[in-house]
Amino acid sequence: MEQKTSSTPLRMWREERSWHDAETEWDNGAARAAESSPIQSLKHLPKMVGITPDTAKNLKWKSLKWMIAKDHQRKILKGFLKHPLKYTWQLLKSSFKKKPFKRQGDFFLYGLNDLAEFESLIQDEKALLIVGFSYCHKPFECPSGRFSPDCIHDPLNNVCRQCFIGKAMNALPQKNSSSMCIPTIHDIGAEIFRLIDLHPTKMLIFMITACEMTLEMFGDWGNMVALKGIGIRLDGRICNTMRAFELSELGTKPGLTTLLPPTQSKILELLHLRYSSINQ
Ligand code: SF4
Questions:
Q1: 42 assigned to some structural domain
Q2: Which domain holds residue 227?
Q3: In ligand 1, which atom is closest to the CA atom of 160?
Q4: How far apart are the CA of 272 and the centre of ligand 1, in A?
Q5: Residue nearest to atom 6 of ligand 1 (CA)
Q6: pTM to 2 decimals?
Q7: In the chain, where do the E strands start and end?
Q8: 38 DSSP assignment
Protein backbone atom coordinates (compact mmCIF):
# COMPACT_ATOMS: atom_id res chain seq x y z
CA MET A 1 0.00 0.00 0.00
CA GLU A 2 2.95 2.28 0.33
CA GLN A 3 2.76 5.62 -1.38
CA LYS A 4 -0.08 4.78 -3.67
CA THR A 5 -0.69 7.63 -6.04
CA SER A 6 -3.79 9.00 -7.62
CA SER A 7 -4.77 7.27 -10.81
CA THR A 8 -4.86 10.62 -12.58
CA PRO A 9 -2.04 13.12 -12.93
CA LEU A 10 -4.27 15.81 -11.43
CA ARG A 11 -3.71 16.38 -7.76
CA MET A 12 -5.59 19.11 -5.95
CA TRP A 13 -2.87 19.62 -3.39
CA ARG A 14 0.20 20.25 -5.53
CA GLU A 15 3.36 21.61 -4.06
CA GLU A 16 3.08 24.98 -5.80
CA ARG A 17 -0.51 25.57 -4.69
CA SER A 18 -1.55 27.06 -1.36
CA TRP A 19 -3.50 24.82 1.03
CA HIS A 20 -6.39 27.25 1.04
CA ASP A 21 -6.67 27.39 -2.78
CA ALA A 22 -6.49 23.60 -3.05
CA GLU A 23 -9.16 23.08 -0.42
CA THR A 24 -11.48 25.68 -1.92
CA GLU A 25 -11.12 24.08 -5.36
CA TRP A 26 -11.77 20.64 -3.88
CA ASP A 27 -14.89 21.79 -2.02
CA ASN A 28 -16.30 23.62 -5.05
CA GLY A 29 -15.80 20.49 -7.14
CA ALA A 30 -17.44 18.38 -4.45
CA ALA A 31 -20.48 20.68 -4.42
CA ARG A 32 -20.77 20.41 -8.23
CA ALA A 33 -20.46 16.61 -8.08
CA ALA A 34 -23.15 16.43 -5.39
CA GLU A 35 -25.47 18.50 -7.54
CA SER A 36 -25.10 16.30 -10.61
CA SER A 37 -24.82 12.82 -9.02
CA PRO A 38 -25.19 12.79 -5.23
CA ILE A 39 -23.88 9.74 -3.35
CA GLN A 40 -25.86 7.98 -0.63
CA SER A 41 -25.25 9.40 2.82
CA LEU A 42 -26.57 8.98 6.33
CA LYS A 43 -29.83 10.89 6.61
CA HIS A 44 -29.41 11.20 10.36
CA LEU A 45 -26.90 10.02 12.94
CA PRO A 46 -28.13 6.93 14.80
CA LYS A 47 -27.77 7.10 18.57
CA MET A 48 -25.53 4.10 19.33
CA VAL A 49 -23.31 3.37 22.30
CA GLY A 50 -19.67 2.81 21.36
CA ILE A 51 -19.65 -0.73 22.82
CA THR A 52 -22.65 -2.56 24.26
CA PRO A 53 -22.23 -3.58 27.93
CA ASP A 54 -22.19 -7.31 27.08
CA THR A 55 -19.55 -6.85 24.41
CA ALA A 56 -17.42 -4.74 26.75
CA LYS A 57 -16.96 -7.72 29.07
CA ASN A 58 -13.61 -9.55 28.68
CA LEU A 59 -12.76 -7.49 25.62
CA LYS A 60 -9.02 -8.12 25.91
CA TRP A 61 -9.62 -11.85 25.85
CA LYS A 62 -11.98 -11.55 22.86
CA SER A 63 -9.37 -9.52 21.04
CA LEU A 64 -6.61 -12.10 21.67
CA LYS A 65 -8.88 -14.92 20.54
CA TRP A 66 -9.85 -13.06 17.37
CA MET A 67 -6.28 -12.16 16.47
CA ILE A 68 -5.07 -15.74 16.80
CA ALA A 69 -8.10 -17.67 15.49
CA LYS A 70 -8.64 -15.49 12.42
CA ASP A 71 -5.00 -15.17 11.41
CA HIS A 72 -5.64 -17.58 8.53
CA GLN A 73 -2.70 -16.47 6.42
CA ARG A 74 -0.40 -16.25 9.47
CA LYS A 75 0.10 -12.54 8.70
CA ILE A 76 0.24 -11.53 12.34
CA LEU A 77 2.13 -14.59 13.51
CA LYS A 78 4.89 -14.03 10.94
CA GLY A 79 5.33 -10.41 12.04
CA PHE A 80 5.19 -11.35 15.70
CA LEU A 81 7.90 -14.01 15.28
CA LYS A 82 10.38 -11.41 14.04
CA HIS A 83 10.74 -10.13 17.63
CA PRO A 84 8.78 -12.54 19.85
CA LEU A 85 10.32 -11.54 23.20
CA LYS A 86 10.09 -7.81 22.64
CA TYR A 87 6.49 -8.06 21.37
CA THR A 88 5.36 -10.38 24.16
CA TRP A 89 6.76 -8.02 26.77
CA GLN A 90 5.17 -4.95 25.18
CA LEU A 91 1.83 -6.71 24.73
CA LEU A 92 1.81 -7.81 28.37
CA LYS A 93 2.79 -4.35 29.59
CA SER A 94 -0.09 -2.80 27.66
CA SER A 95 -2.57 -5.53 28.68
CA PHE A 96 -2.07 -4.77 32.36
CA LYS A 97 -3.08 -1.16 31.87
CA LYS A 98 -6.73 -0.38 32.40
CA LYS A 99 -6.90 1.29 28.99
CA PRO A 100 -4.30 0.95 26.22
CA PHE A 101 -4.84 4.55 25.14
CA LYS A 102 -5.56 8.06 26.34
CA ARG A 103 -8.53 9.79 24.83
CA GLN A 104 -9.19 13.34 23.69
CA GLY A 105 -12.74 13.48 22.27
CA ASP A 106 -12.83 11.41 19.08
CA PHE A 107 -9.04 10.92 19.18
CA PHE A 108 -7.55 7.83 20.84
CA LEU A 109 -3.88 8.35 21.64
CA TYR A 110 -1.43 5.45 21.61
CA GLY A 111 2.00 6.05 23.11
CA LEU A 112 1.15 9.75 23.31
CA ASN A 113 0.33 12.08 26.17
CA ASP A 114 -1.88 14.39 24.19
CA LEU A 115 -2.89 15.39 20.69
CA ALA A 116 -0.34 18.21 20.76
CA GLU A 117 2.40 15.56 20.84
CA PHE A 118 1.03 14.05 17.64
CA GLU A 119 0.80 17.51 16.05
CA SER A 120 4.48 17.85 16.66
CA LEU A 121 5.34 14.35 15.38
CA ILE A 122 3.35 14.78 12.18
CA GLN A 123 5.55 17.75 11.32
CA ASP A 124 8.65 15.59 11.35
CA GLU A 125 9.09 15.01 7.64
CA LYS A 126 11.50 12.15 8.30
CA ALA A 127 8.80 10.18 10.11
CA LEU A 128 6.83 7.78 7.92
CA LEU A 129 3.14 8.60 8.30
CA ILE A 130 0.79 5.62 7.96
CA VAL A 131 -2.77 6.66 7.17
CA GLY A 132 -5.63 4.17 7.20
CA PHE A 133 -9.36 4.57 6.64
CA SER A 134 -11.75 1.88 7.71
CA TYR A 135 -13.59 0.45 4.68
CA CYS A 136 -17.00 0.98 6.28
CA HIS A 137 -16.48 4.72 5.77
CA LYS A 138 -16.23 4.27 1.98
CA PRO A 139 -19.33 5.32 0.02
CA PHE A 140 -21.55 2.50 -1.27
CA GLU A 141 -20.73 3.75 -4.78
CA CYS A 142 -16.93 3.61 -4.22
CA PRO A 143 -15.24 2.83 -7.58
CA SER A 144 -12.53 0.80 -5.81
CA GLY A 145 -15.09 -1.45 -4.13
CA ARG A 146 -16.08 -1.16 -0.50
CA PHE A 147 -14.44 -4.20 1.14
CA SER A 148 -11.05 -3.49 -0.37
CA PRO A 149 -7.78 -1.80 0.62
CA ASP A 150 -7.81 0.14 -2.67
CA CYS A 151 -8.70 3.76 -3.17
CA ILE A 152 -8.19 5.53 -6.48
CA HIS A 153 -9.10 8.92 -4.89
CA ASP A 154 -9.57 10.37 -8.33
CA PRO A 155 -10.54 14.05 -8.07
CA LEU A 156 -12.31 13.79 -11.44
CA ASN A 157 -14.55 10.98 -10.26
CA ASN A 158 -17.85 12.31 -8.91
CA VAL A 159 -17.96 9.73 -6.10
CA CYS A 160 -14.38 10.29 -4.94
CA ARG A 161 -14.95 14.03 -5.07
CA GLN A 162 -17.80 13.78 -2.54
CA CYS A 163 -15.94 11.33 -0.33
CA PHE A 164 -14.02 12.57 2.73
CA ILE A 165 -11.45 9.82 2.23
CA GLY A 166 -10.87 11.18 -1.28
CA LYS A 167 -10.30 14.67 0.07
CA ALA A 168 -7.92 13.48 2.78
CA MET A 169 -5.98 11.20 0.42
CA ASN A 170 -5.51 14.05 -2.03
CA ALA A 171 -4.39 16.38 0.75
CA LEU A 172 -1.89 13.85 2.14
CA PRO A 173 1.63 14.68 0.95
CA GLN A 174 3.00 11.57 -0.78
CA LYS A 175 6.54 11.98 0.49
CA ASN A 176 7.18 9.64 3.40
CA SER A 177 3.62 8.49 3.67
CA SER A 178 1.74 5.26 3.24
CA SER A 179 -2.00 5.01 2.92
CA MET A 180 -4.69 2.40 2.57
CA CYS A 181 -8.28 1.59 3.27
CA ILE A 182 -8.61 -1.13 5.88
CA PRO A 183 -10.71 -4.23 5.18
CA THR A 184 -9.74 -6.21 8.30
CA ILE A 185 -7.70 -5.87 11.46
CA HIS A 186 -5.30 -8.52 10.15
CA ASP A 187 -4.74 -6.51 6.97
CA ILE A 188 -3.68 -3.37 8.81
CA GLY A 189 -1.62 -5.43 11.28
CA ALA A 190 0.23 -7.15 8.44
CA GLU A 191 0.83 -3.84 6.71
CA ILE A 192 2.30 -2.30 9.84
CA PHE A 193 4.63 -5.28 10.30
CA ARG A 194 5.66 -4.94 6.63
CA LEU A 195 6.47 -1.26 7.06
CA ILE A 196 8.40 -1.88 10.28
CA ASP A 197 10.48 -4.45 8.38
CA LEU A 198 11.00 -2.17 5.43
CA HIS A 199 12.04 0.84 7.51
CA PRO A 200 13.88 -0.52 10.56
CA THR A 201 15.56 2.78 11.41
CA LYS A 202 12.71 5.14 10.62
CA MET A 203 10.16 6.51 13.05
CA LEU A 204 6.70 5.30 12.05
CA ILE A 205 3.59 7.15 13.18
CA PHE A 206 -0.01 6.37 12.35
CA MET A 207 -3.41 7.95 11.91
CA ILE A 208 -6.23 5.44 11.49
CA THR A 209 -10.02 5.68 11.56
CA ALA A 210 -12.08 2.91 13.16
CA CYS A 211 -15.09 2.24 15.38
CA GLU A 212 -14.65 2.85 19.11
CA MET A 213 -14.92 -0.88 19.73
CA THR A 214 -12.00 -1.68 17.39
CA LEU A 215 -9.89 1.13 18.83
CA GLU A 216 -10.45 -0.27 22.30
CA MET A 217 -10.14 -3.95 21.38
CA PHE A 218 -6.90 -3.75 19.47
CA GLY A 219 -5.12 -0.97 21.34
CA ASP A 220 -2.83 -3.44 23.09
CA TRP A 221 -1.72 -4.76 19.69
CA GLY A 222 -0.79 -1.27 18.58
CA ASN A 223 1.20 -0.82 21.78
CA MET A 224 2.86 -4.19 21.17
CA VAL A 225 4.73 -2.76 18.18
CA ALA A 226 5.32 0.46 20.15
CA LEU A 227 4.28 2.86 17.43
CA LYS A 228 2.96 6.28 18.34
CA GLY A 229 -0.21 7.38 16.70
CA ILE A 230 -3.87 8.20 16.82
CA GLY A 231 -7.05 6.23 16.26
CA ILE A 232 -9.96 8.37 15.15
CA ARG A 233 -13.46 7.38 16.19
CA LEU A 234 -16.04 6.82 13.49
CA ASP A 235 -19.68 7.68 14.07
CA GLY A 236 -22.79 6.59 12.18
CA ARG A 237 -23.63 2.89 11.73
CA ILE A 238 -20.72 1.60 13.78
CA CYS A 239 -20.02 -1.92 15.04
CA ASN A 240 -20.71 -2.05 18.75
CA THR A 241 -21.26 -5.78 19.26
CA MET A 242 -19.01 -8.77 18.59
CA ARG A 243 -21.52 -10.11 16.04
CA ALA A 244 -21.52 -6.86 14.05
CA PHE A 245 -17.71 -6.77 14.22
CA GLU A 246 -17.43 -10.38 13.00
CA LEU A 247 -19.71 -9.71 10.03
CA SER A 248 -17.87 -6.51 9.22
CA GLU A 249 -14.54 -8.38 9.15
CA LEU A 250 -16.09 -10.67 6.53
CA GLY A 251 -17.12 -7.69 4.41
CA THR A 252 -20.76 -7.62 5.49
CA LYS A 253 -21.34 -4.08 6.55
CA PRO A 254 -24.69 -2.80 5.34
CA GLY A 255 -24.42 0.54 7.14
CA LEU A 256 -22.31 3.62 6.53
CA THR A 257 -19.99 5.14 9.09
CA THR A 258 -18.96 8.75 9.09
CA LEU A 259 -16.65 11.23 10.79
CA LEU A 260 -18.28 14.09 12.64
CA PRO A 261 -17.62 17.50 11.04
CA PRO A 262 -15.30 18.78 13.84
CA THR A 263 -13.33 15.51 13.60
CA GLN A 264 -12.99 15.91 9.83
CA SER A 265 -11.75 19.47 10.37
CA LYS A 266 -9.15 18.26 12.87
CA ILE A 267 -7.90 15.59 10.45
CA LEU A 268 -7.51 18.21 7.73
CA GLU A 269 -5.74 20.47 10.22
CA LEU A 270 -3.28 17.65 10.95
CA LEU A 271 -2.75 17.04 7.23
CA HIS A 272 -2.22 20.77 6.76
CA LEU A 273 0.54 20.66 9.39
CA ARG A 274 2.14 17.76 7.52
CA TYR A 275 1.76 19.54 4.19
CA SER A 276 3.36 22.73 5.54
CA SER A 277 6.30 20.86 7.05
CA ILE A 278 6.93 18.82 3.90
CA ASN A 279 6.56 21.74 1.51
CA GLN A 280 8.43 24.39 3.44
S1 SF4 B 1 -11.85 8.35 -2.60
FE2 SF4 B 1 -13.61 7.41 -1.57
S3 SF4 B 1 -14.94 6.84 -3.26
FE4 SF4 B 1 -12.94 7.22 -4.17
S5 SF4 B 1 -11.95 5.25 -4.24
FE6 SF4 B 1 -11.34 6.21 -2.32
S7 SF4 B 1 -12.80 5.51 -0.80
FE8 SF4 B 1 -13.67 5.07 -2.81
A1: no
A2: 51-279
A3: 4
A4: 20
A5: 151
A6: 0.93
A7: 102-104, 107-110, 128-134, 177-182, 204-210, 228-233, 235-236, 257-258
A8: P
